[in-house]
Amino acid sequence: MVCVYCCESIQDGPSYRKHMVEEHPTFKVRMAFAHVTEGFLKADITDLSCRICFTAFDSLEDIARHLHDMHQKPIDVNLDLGIQPFRLEGDKLQCAMCSAKAICLRQLSRHTQSHFSKFTCEACGKSYSTITTLKHHITYSHSGGNKMCRKCKTTFDTLEARREHVYTSKKCWTNMCNLCNERFLNWKTKQEHLTQVHGLTKKTYVCPECPLIFDDRKKYRTHFRLSHTEDIFVCTCCGLKFDTKKNLDEHRVIHTKEKLFPCPVCSKAFPRKKNLVQHLWIHSELKRFSCTLCNKHFNQRVTWKSHMKSYHPEIEDYQDMMNKNVKILLSVDKSDV
C-alpha cells in the first residue's frame, strides 16, 4: 500500500493506520487527489472515525454526510465520493461492500472495482469503473488493437506475427527481476530465475483460511476460490465445482455427450474446441515438432514426446528443442491448418 500524502510504501493494514495517525495528523485533501488523474482513491475504513469529534462510522457515505451536516465541511453528498472502501483486518482480506473473500490485496482491489463499474462495453457487455479503461478495452479487444504489442506499441498484420514478436523480443517481456533487471517471458520463469540464480527460497503459499500450503501459485488460487469463496461455477448434473465458466463448459460434455466441433476435413467430431484444434494438425502438411537428433518431424507434441522417450531416453531436458518448436508454432498462420 502507498500513502497518498508522502508516497511511502507500507506492508499491512495496522502499520498503515499507525502511519496515518503518527505522520499525518493534519493534511491537505488536494494532495491525495493529486495522485489520481482519473478513477478512485482507496481508503482503509477499518477504524473509521471523525477527526473532529471522534465519532465512529461504518461507511464513507455516513462519515461524509456527518462532516457536511455537523461540521459544515464543503462536501457535496449528492455526488460520488470517488473513494473505494477497504477493510484491512489481520491476514484475511474481505470486500468492505459484500464480504467476498480475496487471496491477495491486488485481487481484492480488482473485486472492489466491480462495485464501481458504471461504463459498459456495448460489444461484449464487460463493465469498467472509468471511461478511460473502457476505451482501452475497446481499443485492444474490438478495434484491432489485439494485434499491437502493449509494450512497444508496434502493430502487426496478424495475431501470429504479434505472438512471434512478443516471444522473440526480450525488451517487450513484462516480467523483470528486481535484482538484476533480467527480463522473462512469463512469471513462472522469473521465479525459477530468482531461486536458481539469486538463491532465493522458493515461495510457498499458505492458505489464510485452512492449514494447506502450496508451492504452486495457480493451484493455490484455484483451491482458495473453490474452497473458500462463493465465486464458483457448479455443475448441475454432478455438483462438481469449477473456478471458471470455461472449465465448467468443458466438463459438461461428459454428461451431454455432445460433439459440437466437427472436423472440416474428415468425418470426426469433438466435444471440445481444443480437441478439434489439436486434431486439425493431423491434416496439416506442416510438421511443428522436430527431433534434432535424428531429424524426424511430427505433427503433434504427444507423438514427438513419445518418440523422445522411446528413442532418446538418455535426454532428460527437452527445453532447447521445445524452444525451437515453439518458435515454429508461433510463426504458423492458423489459416494454414
TrEMBL record:
SMART domains (alphabetical): ZnF_C2H2
Superkingdom in the source lineage: Eukaryota
Entry's Gene Ontology molecular function annotations: zinc ion binding
Keyword Zinc recorded: yes
Keyword Repeat listed: yes
InterPro entries: Znf_C2H2_sf, Znf_C2H2_type
Keyword list, A-Z: Metal-binding, Repeat, Zinc, Zinc-finger
Protein name: C2H2-type domain-containing protein
Lineage: Eukaryota, Metazoa, Ecdysozoa, Arthropoda, Hexapoda
